Amino acid sequence: MSTVEANVRPDYDDELQKIADYVLDTRIESDEAWNTARLCLMDTLGCGLLALRFPECTKHLGPLVEGTVVPHGARVPGTAYRLDPVKAAWDIGCIVRWLDYNDTWLAAEWGHPSDNLGAILAVADHLSQKRVAEGEAPLVMRDVLEAMIMAHEIQGVLALENSFNRVGLDHVVLVKVASTAVAARLQGANREQLLSALSHAWVDGQSLRTYRHAPNAGSRKSWAAGDATSRAVRLADIALRGEVGVPGALTAPQWGFYDVLFSHTNRDLATKPEAERRFRFQRDFGSYVMENILFKLSFPAEFHAQTACEAAVTLHPAVKGRIEEIERIVITTHESAIRIISKEGALANPADRDHCLQYMVAVPLLFGELAAEHYEDDFHAAHPEIDALRAKMKVVEEPRYSRDYLDPEKRSIANAIQVVFTDGSATEQVAVEYPIGHRRRREEGVPVLEEKFRRNLETCFPRPRSARILALCRDQGALEAMPVHRFMGLLTP
Known about the structure:
Elements: H1 14-25, H2 31-51, H3 55-58, E1 74-75, E2 82-83, H4 85-97, E3 105-106, E4 110-111, H5 117-133, H6 141-160, H7 172-186, H8 191-203, H9 220-240, H10 257-261, H11 288-292, H12 306-319, E5 326-333, H13 335-341, H14 350-353, H15 357-367, H16 377-382, H17 385-390, E6 393-397, H18 399-406, E7 415-421, E8 430-432, H19 442-457, H20 463-474, H21 476-481, H22 484-490
């Protein structure tokens, strides 16, 4: 055995170069992407404002050292905090993700690309203030929207054919990578600095997915995005200070990401076929993900259950007077929903409940609606009939639903529900293939999104201020032209 290791420093991995060149060189030409990014900004901010009603969320917010004063500190929407960009990214990422009500992306890997707004807004607000103080032009909201499109694209394209959950990792690794790329770009990184930042994002130890799943599900899933965006801002800063990168972060034999974390399936530790031990790209980076992003407009529920919730609301009038007569409830769904959110037994906390398909069907069947408050401990304890209904549910896979879920031309998220009564009668089977937040229902969804945003604004601000913010966000040109620091000022109480 040789005792000498060849010390030939490689070029940066092709995958890192692909991401870096995209954020540095690509111009976004799609009007649909720009418009959808505006809608995404509205929806994501609204989700964050709504989360401020929940003490379990707000306990995490604010400076690590009470009373810290940060010159040109980044604002956290809906609060009076002005923080360094690293902690601001944590806080913004935390609030926008807390209620599981922001956008989502479903592919081989899942995720919530608007999580990246934590890093984007924190960096952009701080830089905009700093530039104005130094007599330079501020960043404008078009810069924010562009960064959102790019972060969505990086996270979403990496997720199309690469499953991180099947190797036991959590999808927030993609938030960290995407946020690192756009945070570095916003700060003026050159190619070498951007590559360095990206390499460090992959070299980091990655989150284990166990915190999202029974029996360990808990509220870490609600602040994981904040943690990832915060780390991204820190890594971008490190790289911009001239820190050397790790060129073979992915491909280095034995020590790289592929060999250490991507080479074995997590259930049986079987070695994956060689072709599957590295990332595959279904398409080049562009604006596909933002154009096709999925919004959670009607229900704060894990996205695989959105159509099931809609079907349950539809069935509510037919069952509300016959709850005691229900013999069984048949939920017909797709494979991913079964793997992620179908569960029996006791549900320990709100995070456990909003990732339980049966719970998210039972509540709207009983009450005709599903809101964030319905996951809270007190509500669950007060309504034992929810678990009684869960016990009567049977979940079955429809192979067509599973195929259409992965079809790039469809990307449906189909569910169907039928309720059978003790006298042998049954409701119709109500099937919903595309949720209202899907691209195929975008025209129908925009008014719902705007109304959701209006309601969420009014949880924090007086109606005149809320109306002003809503009017601005409806105007593509006016929003894009507004300096970032002025926009963030509108969101400060």
